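Hi there. Long-time user, first ticket. I'm pasting a complex I've been working with (about 586 residues overall). I'd like to know whether the download I got is complete or cut off, because the file seemed smaller than I expected. Thanks.
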Amino acid sequence: MSALRGRAHRYGDNVDTDGIIPARYLNTSEVAELAAHCMEDLDAEFVRKVQPGDIVVGGENFGCGSSREHAPLAMGGAGVSCVIAKSFARIFFRNSINVGLPALVCPEAAGEIEDGDEVAVELRSGRIENVTQGRSYQAEPFPEFLQQIIAAGGLVAYTRERIAKR
Amino acid sequence: MGATITEKILAAHSGQQTVRPGQFVMAELDLMLGNDVTAPIAIEEFRKIGAKKLAGGARLVLVADHGTPNKDIKTAEQCRVMREFSREQGVQHFYDVGRAGIEHALLPEEGLVAPGECIIGADSHTCTYGAVGAFATGTGSTDLAVAMATGQCWLRVPESIKVVYRGERKPWVGGKDLILYTIGRISVSGALYQALEFCGEAIEALPMADRLTMCNMAIEAGAKNGIIAPDATTASFMDSVTSRDYRPMASDADAEYARTIEIDCSEIELQVALPALPEKARPVGEVGEVTIQQAVIGSCTNGRIEDMRAAAEILRGRKVHPEVRLIVIPATPRVQLEMVREGLAETFLEAGGVLSTPTCGPCLGYHMGVLAKGERAVATTNRNFVGRMGHQESEVYLAGPPVAAASAVLGRIGSPEELP
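Hi, the file is complete. Here it is re-exported in full:
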């Protein structure tokens, strides 16, 4: 796992999955099409602003609401390299791990990173560096079980390994 | 030390004597669910896993409910993916238009969920089935794909919050009001990653339809699952839908809870959750003058026959306000048929409402009642996020069927008590 680096796009508490990808686009699972509408109802400028590698920063309960996996898929498709939040809604968190969009819990970083700051993230160690502000943080480590899924490359790859071992 | 009902069900399904909160388990599932939005991705991921056959095909339920009858060509293609997969794999429980209802109303009605069972669904409102004493939780499509391939799902055993409801409910106050009030108290993240265990004398007195409504919205407090221990009401409901065996479980008296919340139901008024979070619950009398253009009665939260009866009782002999569009959506074909038989369909139509076929439709702003810019709706649905029912500058007020029906007549948000 390499270091991720990009500009921060900061949002508040309780960002819901309707805000990340409105239901009117759920009649497709094409990632490029979903990506084109990412954050549409929350921040109409997002798709124009976002650059590959950028990082989304949220407050509490990020990704609450529906179970749509289209949400992390749209974010990944739009170029978002990871999400840092004070806390995540549980289905969004599962989905992110499963589809390979890193989701880091770090209340301090999520509270202090400003919109537009340049942020670097070292996934293996969970170290978050705010390059613009010159501050660094430590994200909560993933539980050992989840580390196995991440190390395998996502839940599909992990399951293939499990089935092969049987 | 004792165990909660949630811990007992997860232990029994992962081959362990006991499990503790925080522990990760690989649970053997009794049932898994997908719909026309989530199943197409799950089917694609199922193939990526390299699986050829479903692990326990009888345990998969696929329901075409979100955008059906097909609202556009893309939706039609999504349903076709489910239909072809079901044929290929011999999926016995594939529900297509005509048999399909909103999944979380349909599955209990079909007797597919039972006490003590362990269920996942690629839909966040899968937590509804906790009402019959099952562990049921929402996941994404990839989790469903893995469940389809292996019959299992990884789960973190949640801490439990005990919510004790005492006292008698006021007239018209139902499960929707209790759960909106509860979410208002604990917030939309108040039960994050935890189980919400509803109990107490007011729950024991609560009919199954209201219990389903309460567990349905556990996710709106961030909960992993909502659950109610099986009792006589559960047994009588199960007897009415299935004759198969199941293993009811209950929490031990010395089970450990993260916290206990006490709620006196006698103080709970009819509730309305203001835009744009379910936690913005208020007594209907404190909402103020809010005119509405649409009222929706339906959804997995409140689309059961009991909800239709409550709404029809208010609308009988009355007319929907000329500036309001009332959309009534029975959650399942059986509910719809019962509405016709009981004369409720006639009541809604005579009042000036429209009747839709069963669908999730407007709840997620998908079809059958999408809002324009600046419009406001009162809805018996479960979410009022920004843009949930349509334009990002439209608004949704959540309420139970009595407030939705009364508001449709008044042209503004109000209670049945205000009707002439």
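A couple of notes from our side: The radius of gyration of chain B is 20 Å. Chain B has a mean pLDDT of 98.
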